Amino acid sequence: MLLYHSLAIALSSLTLSTAQDSLFVAQAEAAQSLPATIKWPTNLVGTWSTKSLSTLTGPGFFDPISDELIEPEHTGISYSFTDNGYYEEAYFRAISAPSTPNCPQGLLQWQHGSYFVNSTGSLYLVPIKVDGRQLISNPCAGSSADYLRYNQSEMFSMYSQFTDPYHNVPRLDLYEWDGTPMNPMYLVYSPPQMLPTTTLLPVTSATAHSKMKKRALAPEVPLSWKNGLMEHKELVRSINADRLWWVGLGLTGVGGLLYLGPRRMGWV
């Protein structure tokens, strides 16, 4: 009975979460068709970054021509907003697990799309579905990292923009959907530093997925993602599937002779 009750709670939570996501997307997509005379919040405009000021949106984080994420010098988060409803985000995080403290995962993530603020002050972000990218590395799970498409709508329950009393610079505080505050961000550029706001990577295949050589990662340490990608491309280029099949067949035959030959000769 307890099991059924737990399953019912889990399913209801999942259903509620899915419904909320659908509502966020519907509201944000509706905002895209609003008239050009709408007034977007001017205090959001610009490129904001967490304290290291190393992770920033724009061409220094994601290269759409080569479809490549570029590692910053330090971990951090950056958001950019325009005065006509567009945004861009860049994440570079190190995620440690208590069970394997020596194997932190690396996460690079990039999205862009449209945003709006509703009447209660909540901030909604809806990305262009095919453009988002995510790179995940786990040095203890194998010798490669995953590079794939990423699409996640976001809702911040509120935001606050003011002059930081300690640094005396514009500061932006975002609060997640449940009210949890994110790390404060500070204004780096105004107008914002962003890639074009239109679709940059139209779908040409079902899924963008590649493997890259992975290196050990620690917080605040850069990754050599680009070098790993080049090494993997050379590896894939050098493998011939037909040759590999014949080599496998030959080795199987040799193994059979080594096993059966001595037995038939009465040596074993």
TrEMBL record:
Residues 1-19 form the signal peptide. Keywords: Endoplasmic reticulum, Membrane, Signal, Transmembrane, Transmembrane helix. GO terms for cellular component: endoplasmic reticulum membrane. Pfam families: Rot1. GO terms for molecular function: unfolded protein binding. Coiled coil: none annotated. It is found in: Endoplasmic reticulum membrane. The chain crosses the membrane at residues 244-261. It is a single-pass type I membrane protein. One of its GO terms (biological process) is 'de novo' protein folding. Required for normal levels of the cell wall 1,6-beta-glucan. Involved in a protein folding machinery chaperoning proteins acting in various physiological processes including cell wall synthesis and lysis of autophagic bodies. Belongs to the ROT1 family. This is Protein ROT1. It comes from Neohortaea acidophila.
